[in-house]
Amino acid sequence: MTLSVALGPDTQEGTRTGTAESTDFLAAPDIPWNLVIWNDPVNLMSYVSYVFQSYFGYSETKANKLMMEVHKKGRSIVASGSKEQVERHAVAMHGFGLWATVEKASGGPGGNSGKSGGSGQGKGKRG
Amino acid sequence: MAKAFKYGLKGITGYLEPTERELLRSLIDDVISMLQPEEREGQDPLAAMIGLDMDVAEPTDRAVKRLLPNVVKNDGAASLEFRQLTERSLRETKIGALRAAALDLDKDEIVLTPEGARHWSMALNDVRLVLAERLDIQDEEDAEHVHLMQDWSQAEDVESYLALVYNFATWLQESLVQAMLQSLDTRR
Q1: Is the ipTM of this complex over 0.85?
Q2: How many CB pairs lie under 8 A apart between chains A and B?
Q3: Contacts of B143 in chain A (CB under 8 A)
Q4: Taking CB atoms and an 8 Å limit, are B69 and A99 in contact across chains?
Q5: Nearest residue on chain B to A35, judged by CA atoms?
Q6: Which long-range contacts (CB under 8 A, 24 or more apart) does A111-119 make?
Q7: Is B47 inside any structural domain?
Q8: Is residue A39 within 8 Å of residue A74, measured between CB atoms?
Q9: I need a labelling partner for B57 at 20 to 30 A (CA). Which of A27, A114, B92, B108 fits?
Q10: In a domain, B59, yes or no
C-alpha cells in the first residue's frame, strides 16, 4: 500500500472514536473459510481502512490494525464465515479494487499457506 | 489548480480545472473500454441477463487482470468457475462507478453525496490501478520512484507524463478518502 504525503494540513484526519465492532469474528471457532486481503503498492492505506470501516462496519482502530497487517505482513484475514459469505465479500472487495482471495481456514486450497510469511497470523489476533 | 476534496455542510466538495476534468474523463473512458464485456456470437441472452458468462476466460491484459483478479490463489479452475458467476456483474459495478464519476465532471465544482463519493473513490482507484500497471509499479520501491515525479516541467516522455498523471490521481483520491473518513465519523 502507499501512503500519500501530498496532503496539506487542511485535510488531515480528525480525532475519531469508533465503537462499531463486527460480529463476524464472534462466530464459532470452527469457521471454515477466510477472506484474505493482499498487499499491493497502489492502494492507499487510508482507502483500505475506509473500505474496512464502511463495508464491514469495523471500528477505526480495528480497520487500521487490519490495514497495517496487510501492509507489513503482506496479507491479512479480514473476515471469516461460510464459503458463500466470504465469496460475496471478495466480489465486494474486487469492486473496491482491493486484492482479495478466499481460502479454507485450515491453510487454504492450493497449498498457498506461508507463501507471504503472513499466513495463519490472523487467528491469534481475533477478538 | 484543483482543490483538495473537503467535507463540510454541503457534503463532500471538490474543484477541478477544465483541463484536469478533461484528463480525468479520458482516463475514466479508457478504463470503461477495458472493462466493457465482449459481446460474443451465440451468447445465451438469458444467461447474460442474470450475469452468467460460461465462456469467460482469465484476462490476458495485466491491468484488466488487476481489476478483475482471481478469487482463489494458485487455483485457476476454481477462480474461473467463480468468474463465470460473478465477473460480468463485477464489470458492470465498476463501469457504473466510473460512469457516475464521469457525469460529475460536467461542472467545475464537484458536490458529492456519500454514494457519489464512494463511486468516485472506486473510480479513482481503478484508474490508478490501470496507470500503475502501465508504469510497471510492482512494489513499494517502484511506487516511491514514481512518487518522486512531481514537476510537470519534467514531463519529457510518455512514462514521466504517466507518472505525473498517476500522482495527480493519487493526490485527488487521498484527499477524497480523508473527506470520506471524516464524513463516516460524523455519521457514527
Answers
A1: yes
A2: 133
A3: 2, 41-42
A4: yes
A5: B71
A6: A111/B74, A112/B73, A112/B74, A115/B73, A116/A38, A116/A39, A116/A73, A116/A74, A116/A75, A117/A73, A117/A74, A118/A69, A118/A73, A118/A74, A118/A75, A118/A76, A119/A75
A7: no
A8: yes
A9: A114
A10: no
In a domain, A113, yes or no: no
CB nearest to B75's CB, from A7, A49, A109: A109
Beta carbons of B94 and A95 less than 8 Å apart = yes
- Residue B77, amino acid: A
Asked if A12 and A53 count as a contact pair (C-beta separation under 8 A), the reply is no
Using the Cβ of B82 and the Cβ atoms of chain A, whether some distance falls under 8 Å is answered with yes
Instruction: Determine contact, residues B17/B24, Cβ cutoff 8 Å.
Output: no
Strand, helix or coil at B3? strand
Residue where the block lists cell 480523508 = B178
Domain count, chain B: 1
The DSSP call for residue B110 is E
Yes or no, beta carbons of A10 and B86 under 8 Å apart: no
Q: Classify residue A72: in a domain, yes or no.
A: yes
Domain that holds residue B132: 12-37+91-187
Which tens digit of pLDDT belongs to each residue from B53-78? 878 889 999 999 999 999 999 999 99
**Element holding B33 (H helix, E strand):** helix B18-35
State how far residue A124 is from chain B, nearest Cα, in angstroms. Answer: 23
Do B142 and A47 count as a contact with CB atoms less than 8 A apart? no
- Quote the number of domains for chain A: 1
pLDDT band at A117 (very low <50, low <70, confident <90, very high): very low
In a domain, B57, yes or no: no
Instruction: Quote the CA–CA distance of B96 and B102 in Å, as a whole number.
Output: 10
DSSP helix, strand, coil percent of chain A (3-state; round to 5): 40, 15, 45
Structural domain that includes position A54: 31-107
Q: Are B68 and B91 in contact (CB under 8 A)?
A: yes
Of A2, A19, A53, the CB nearest to B143: A2
